[in-house]
Design brief:
heterodimer, A: alpha/beta, Rossmann fold, 2 domains, seven-stranded mixed beta sheet, B: alpha/beta, two-stranded antiparallel ribbon, 11 helices
Chain lengths: 332, 329
C-alpha cells in the first residue's frame, strides 16, 4: 500500500470530486493563487482554473452564505474556512440558513454543501487559531459533522459528504496534515455516519475522534506493554452520533475514557458521558473518565499549550488508575 | 407578463392596482386574524410598501429567483404564491406553503423560486450571491432578486454581499426598501451616511433612487435594471424610498414617530396615488374599482375559510425535514 500524508489525502479527495462532477467547486480564502493556508489545495487552480477554485475576500459570512446559496441553486460547493475560529464569523449563515432552511421551508430546500475547516492546537497559534468547536457544531440539528482521524477517512469521507443531500462540516486537525500513513482500499472505509473500532481490546474503551485518535492509539500501545488491553473507538461522525457502537464497546469492556480536544464543560465529552449514563450505566464498572483541554483559551507558549491539551501520558495514567481501582474493588 | 417593455395601458394599470389591493387588504385581514389569535408569532405587515413588490415583480420571469425578509407577504403574493397557501401557513396548517413550519416570517415556494422570508436582517444577501453564482456557473440567464430593508445596510453581510456581487459580476437585483426605520430606530440614528444608494455605488454597482410609493416608477426602474443585468452588466441596486404605515410588528407601540408623519406619508400611499390618477384621468370606473375590491375580498374570504378548515400537521411528523429522508425501499 502507498504511504501518503493527510494533506495529500484531503487534496486527492478534492481532485477526485472536481474531476467527477462539474457541479463541484472549491471556494475560500487563499485556496487558489496562494495554494491554501495549509497548502491542501496547492496547485488545484492550475488544473481546474479560477472559475472552480475560487479565491474569496475575507468575508466568512458572505462566502459561506454564497456557498449555501450555490448549493440551493444546484451546485456542489466545497467551502474552505481557513481556521475553525474564523467560522464563528459565519455561524449565522451555518446555523440560521444552512442547518435551518430545509425544516423552515417544510422540506422544500436542500443545502448539499460541504464546509472544510482546519482546527485544533499544537502549532503555537494561540487563542484565536487553535480551538476545537466540533462539539458546538454537533449541537445543531440539520448539520452533519465529520472529523477524520485516519488517512483513509481523510481520503474518502469528502465524497460521502458531497453525496449527502444535507450540509456537512469536515474538520481537519492541523497537526495531522503532515502525518503519513498507508492509504487503505476505498472499499474498506465504513459509511460516514458509523463509528469504527480502530483497536479491539477487552479491558477498557478509549472513545475519541479526529486529532486525538493517534494519541489514543499510542496510549493503547503503551498500555498493552503494561498488560492492559485497551479498545479504541473512533467516532468519526459527531452528528449524527453512532451511539450503538460506543455503547456496544462499553458493554464489553465496562470502562470508558473519553478523550476530547475541546473543553469539558458542555462539550462533546459531556454528551458522550451523558449517553453512557442514560443508556449504559449498568455496563460500567468504574466512573467515566474524561481527558479534555484545560478550560483556558489556548495559550501561545509551547509548554503552556502542551499542558492545556490532552496527552498520551494522561490517557495511560487514567487507564492504569481505572484498572487499579476496579481491581481493588474486586479484591474488597 | 414579464418582459422589459413598459405597458402603460389601462389593463396593465388595473392589474397593478389589483395586485396592490390584494396585498393591502390581505394585510388588513391579518390584523383582525391576529387579534382573533388565528395568527400568532411575529407578524410584520407591508402596508405602504405595496408598490415595491408589485412593481419589481413585473420585471422578473419564472426562471428568476427571489429572496425576501420577514416582511414578505407582499413579495409572496406578487410572485404568485396562492393566498390559500400563505394563509394556511400563518394558521400553522399542513397545507401552508412551508408545511406550518415557517409561519409569517418564512414563506417558501421553491417551484416559484421564492426562497423565503428570512428573519435574520441581511441574512438572505449572501444566499443571493450564491444563487446568482450557481446560475451563472450553469449558464442560466436569470436575475436573482433580493429584497431587504434599510436596516440591513448596517449589517456586515450587506457589505460583504455587495462586494462579492460586483467582484464576480453576478446577476443580482438588490432592492432596498428604505422605509426610514429599522424597527424603531430612525435612519439618522443608525447610518453615518443615510444616502444608501451611495454605499452601493461605492462598490461599483449601478445604483438608483426610486420613488417606492409609485408603482410605475418602480416597475420602470426594475425593468431597466433587469434588462441590463440580463445583458451581463452585473448587479444593480434600487433604493426604493417608502414608508410603513403600520408598526414594525404587532407588538409595536410606535413611540418613536408621530401620527402627523404617518398621515403625511399616507397621503402619497401607493394605492391612493394610483387610484387617484386612474380616477382623475377616467381610466377606471367606480364599478371597476368596486369589482376589484369584491374579487379581492372573495379571494381573502376563501383563503381564511380554507385555512380554517385545513388539517394540522400530525405531531408524529415533528422531526421531519431536519435531514432529507432516505428512502428504504
Amino acid at each position: 500500500m502507498d504511504k501518503i500524508t493527510f494533506r495529500e489525502a484531503f487534496k486527492a479527495a478534492m481532485v477526485e470530486a472536481l474531476n467527477e462532477d462539474p457541479r463541484v467547486f472549491l471556494m475560500g480564502e487563499d485556496v487558489g493563487r496562494y495554494g491554501g493556508c495549509y497548502a491542501v489545495s496547492n496547485g488545484l487552480i492550475d488544473t481546474f482554473g479560477a472559475q472552480r477554485i475560487i479565491d474569496t475576500p475575507l468575508a466568512e459570512s458572505g462566502f459561506v452564505g454564497a456557498g449555501i446559496g450555490a448549493a440551493m441553486g444546484g451546485m456542489k460547493p466545497i467551502v474552505e474556512i481557513m481556521t475553525v475560529n474564523f467560522s464563528l464569523l459565519a455561524l449565522d449563515q451555518i446555523l440560521n440558513n444552512a442547518a435551518t432552511l430545509r425544516h423552515m421551508s417544510g422540506g422544500q430546500i436542500s443545502v448539499p454543501l460541504v464546509i472544510r475547516m482546519a482546527c485544533g492546537a499544537g502549532k503555537q497559534l494561540a487563542a484565536q487559531h487553535s480551538h476545537s468547536f466540533e462539539g458546538l457544531y454537533a449541537h445543531i440539528p440539520g448539520l452533519k459533522v465529520l472529523y477524520p482521524g485516519t488517512i483513509g477517512d481523510a481520503r474518502y469521507m469528502l465524497k460521502m459528504a458531497l453525496d449527502d443531500p444535507d450540509p456537512v462540516i469536515i474538520f481537519e486537525h492541523v497537526m495531522l496534515y503532515n502525518q503519513e500513513g498507508e492509504l487503505p482500499e476505498k472499499n474498506s472505509i465504513a459509511p460516514m455516519e458509523q463509528a469504527v473500532i480502530r483497536r479491539p481490546g477487552r479491558d477498557l474503551s478509549i472513545i475519541t475522534w479526529g486529532g486525538c485518535l493517534y494519541k489514543a492509539l499510542q496510549a493503547a500501545e503503551q498500555l498493552a506493554a503494561l498488560g492492559i488491553d485497551a479498545e479504541v473507538v473512533d467516532l468519526r461522525c459527531l452528528r449524527p452520533l453512532d451511539r450503538a457502537t460506543l455503547l456496544d464497546s462499553v458493554q464489553r469492556t465496562h470502562k470508558a475514557i473519553i478523550v476530547d480536544e475541546s473543553w469539558k464543560s458542555g462539550g462533546m465529552s459531556a454528551e458522550i458521558s451523558a449517553t453512557l449514563a442514560e443508556f449504559g450505566l449498568w455496563y460500567l464498572d468504574a466512573p467515566v473518565q474524561r481527558i479534555c483541554t484545560a478550560e483556558v483559551p489556548i495559550p501561545y507558549a509551547q509548554h503552556l499549550e502542551q499542558a492545556s491539551l490532552p496527552q498520551v501520558t494522561q490517557i495511560v495514567t487514567a487507564a492504569q488508575q481505572m484498572m487499579a481501582s476496579s481491581e481493588s474493588a474486586v479484591r474488597e | 407578463m414579464s418582459n422589459n417593455k413598459l405597458h402603460i395601458n389601462r389593463l396593465h394599470l388595473h392589474f397593478l392596482l389589483k395586485q396592490m389591493i390584494r396585498i393591502s387588504r390581505f394585510e388588513e385581514r391579518c390584523v383582525s386574524l391576529y387579534n382573533q389569535e388565528k395568527i400568532r408569532g411575529f407578524l410584520h405587515l407591508y402596508n405602504g410598501e405595496e408598490a415595491i413588490a408589485v412593481g419589481v415583480m413585473q420585471a422578473l420571469t419564472d426562471q428568476d429567483a427571489i429572496l425576501s425578509t420577514y416582511r414578505e407577504h407582499g413579495h409572496a403574493l406578487a410572485r404568485g404564491l396562492s393566498m390559500n397557501a400563505i394563509m394556511a401557513e400563518m394558521f400553522g396548517k399542513a397545507s401552508g406553503c412551508s408545511g406550518g413550519r415557517g409561519g409569517s416570517m418564512h414563506l417558501f415556494d421553491s417551484s416559484l423560486r421564492f426562497y423565503g422570508g428570512n428573519a435574520i436582517v441581511a441574512g438572505a444577501l449572501p444566499l443571493a450571491v450564491g444563487l446568482a453564482l450557481a446560475d451563472k456557473m450553469q449558464q442560466r440567464k436569470t436575475v436573482i432578486c433580493c429584497f431587504f430593508g434599510e436596516g440591513a445596510v448596517a449589517e456586515g453581510e450587506f457589505h460583504e454581499s455587495l462586494n462579492l456581487a460586483k467582484l464576480w459580476q453576478l446577476p443580482i437585483l438588490f432592492v432596498c426598501e428604505n422605509n426610514l426605520y429599522a424597527m424603531g430606530t430612525a435612519i439618522e440614528f443608525e447610518e453615518s451616511n443615510p444616502k444608501i444608494h451611495l454605499k452601493a455605488a461605492s462598490y461599483g454597482l449601478s445604483a438608483q433612487v426610486v420613488d417606492g410609493m409609485n408603482v410605475i416608477d418602480v416597475e420602470a426602474a426594475a425593468k431597466l435594471a433587469c434588462s441590463a443585468i440580463r445583458n451581463g452588466a452585473g448587479p444593480h441596486f434600487l433604493e426604493c424610498q417608502t414608508y410603513r404605515f403600520r408598526g414594525h410588528s404587532m407588538f409595536d407601540t410606535q413611540l418613536y414617530r408621530n401620527n402627523a408623519e404617518i398621515e403625511q406619508w399616507k397621503k402619497k400611499g401607493p394605492l391612493t396615488q394610483l387610484s387617484h390618477w386612474l380616477t382623475g384621468n377616467h381610466q377606471i370606473e367606480p364599478e371597476e374599482l368596486q369589482a376589484i375590491e369584491s374579487a379581492v375580498e372573495k379571494e381573502i374570504d376563501e383563503a381564511v375559510r380554507s385555512a380554517d378548515a385545513a388539517e394540522i400537521e400530525p405531531v408524529e411528523s415533528l422531526l421531519k425535514h431536519v435531514y432529507k429522508e432516505v428512502s428504504h425501499g
